[in-house]
Amino acid sequence: MIKKMFALSTVLSGILLISGCSQKKEASDINMTSQTRDVFAMDTFMNMKAYGQNADIALSEAEKRILQLEEELSVTNETSDIWKIDHSDGKLVEVSDDTAIIINKAIEMGDRTGGALDITLYPVLKEWGFTTGDHKIPGEQTLKRLLENVDYSKVNIDGDTVSLPEDVEIDLGALAKGYTGDEIMKSMAGNGISSAIVSLGGNVQALGTKPDGSNWKVAVRDPFAPDTDMCIIEIADKAVITSGNYERYFTADDGSVYWHILDPADGYPADNGLVSVTVIGDCGLDCDALSTALFVAGYDGARKLLKSDPSFDLILVSDDHRIYYTEGIADCFTNISSMEAEVISLD
Ligand code: ADP
Ligand code: MG
Predict the structure, then answer these.
(1) Domain with 88 in it: what CATH number?
(2) Mean pLDDT, to the nearest integer, of 1-16?
(3) Half-sphere exposure of 66 (CA within 13 A, CB side)
(4) The overall pTM is greater than 0.90
(5) Which positions in this protein are listed as binding Mg(2+) (predicted)?
(6) How confident is the model at residue 132 (pLDDT cuts 50, 70, 90)?
(7) If pLDDT is split at 50, 70 and 90, which confidence band does 28 have?
(8) Can you tell me which atom of ligand 1 is nearest the CA of 296?
(9) What is the pLDDT of residues 66-85, one digit of tens each?
């Protein structure tokens, strides 16, 4: 329920806080009408807004694509690719191109983040009850035993054929919504839409600019007060994807809070100094993979990755209430919180 509430408020942030600046467009573009569509899929409230005459058809096509991806990627649906992989007992499984693309990306990002992203954590996530909502703190011995089978390099993929050793199971929850956002954008563009914005839980993705040529304004939640906004970022044609410790969590009897992003190093909720990671870039799939991975990797890990690959921007919030953002978004980032914000130095 908590997740659903936050997801819905992200929708409002993503869609309502839209106004803008720059670039003139024709009057006919400016007067374009918009249509919206709500979809509940992938355990998330999704809201889409598209402008133009074809908006209704485009939204229906995008909705179909979301439902198709949910069918393929769900870890609990017995006909999904992921279910088949997880119940294959070591045999080869033929998967869709979508599933293969995401698995390949997960392996690549696992490599690039020193294993911070690991899709084989699924049995550990199940033990914590994050998959069912029946939360519990696993015992040390149980975690140790389960971690023996956590290693994304054991995932074999060749074209559209996947195999896993027995006892290894995967889940693509860390990347699926980012890929879905990319596919929605492709579907919209294919249906003649040049201006659209979608919010899939904490993920906002925009196609083009607003019809008047101005940038979309997207709010990022304050992780310490998730019903308020922390900053506004202006974007066009980009994904803004956040992973935070406030998105899905439980509080134990002793008051300790445990969240759904786990550190593959020890199987516990990742606690490496960051409470929220927002990744801004061209590709939703990459941004989603990175938001989860960098939440695990922490500030130093994020900075290290940025140095080797400056193709994305970041907004990090540390557990001591500071905001760090990349130089690349300095002109389109507005801090509306009481926290101090500073640029991440790469020197
Ligand atoms: P959300 O899906 O809540 O927006 P994320 O994109 O960060 O947030 O994905 C979190 C999900 O990824 C978890 O619910 C879990 O299924 C999975 N997960 C958790 N920790 C990891 C990890 N270190 N590597 C890969 N997947 C993870
Ligand atoms: Mg993610």
Answers:
(1) 1.10.3980.10
(2) 35
(3) 27
(4) yes
(5) 174, 288, 292
(6) confident
(7) low
(8) 23
(9) 999 999 999 999 999 999 99
Residue 227 falls inside a structural domain: no
Sign of torsion, CA 10 13 18 21?
A: negative
Q: What residues make up the domain containing 86?
A: 72-163
Pairing of strands 322-325, 340-343: parallel
Percent of the chain clearing pLDDT 90 (strictly above) = 87
CA of 209 to the centre of ligand 1 (A): 29
Q: pLDDT tier at 247 (50, 70, 90 boundaries)?
A: confident
- Whose alpha carbon is nearest atom 19 of ligand 1? 261
- The Å distance, Cα 173 to ligand 2 centre, comes to 7
DSSP 115: T
To test the pocket of ligand 1, the residue of 172, 292, 295, 316 to mutate (highest count of ligand atoms within 8 Å of its CB) is 292
Q: Has residue 226 been placed in a domain? A: no
> What residues does the ion ligand 2 have nearby, CB within 5 Å?
174, 288, 291-292
Question: In this structure, is residue 271 part of a structural domain?
Answer: no
Residues lining ligand 1, Cβ inside 6 A: 117-119, 121, 125, 130, 171, 173-174, 177, 201-202, 243, 247-248, 260-262, 264, 288, 291-292, 296
Burial (Cβ within 10 Å: 0-12, 13-18, ≥19) of residue 87: exposed
Do residues 260 and 248 touch, judged by C-beta distance below 8 A? yes
Q: Which helix (H) or strand (E) holds 28?
A: helix 27-30
The alpha carbon of 6 and the centre of ligand 1 are apart by a number of angstroms equal to 16
pLDDT tens by residue, 80-129 = 999 999 999 999 999 999 999 999 999 999 999 999 999 999 999 999 99
Question: Does 174 count as an annotated binding residue?
Answer: yes
Secondary structure of 240-270 as H, E, C letters: EEEEECCCCEEECCCCCEEECCECCCCCCEC
Domain count, the chain: 1
**Which of 4, 118, 126, 260 for a ligand 1 pocket mutation test, highest count of atoms within 8 Å of Cβ?**
260
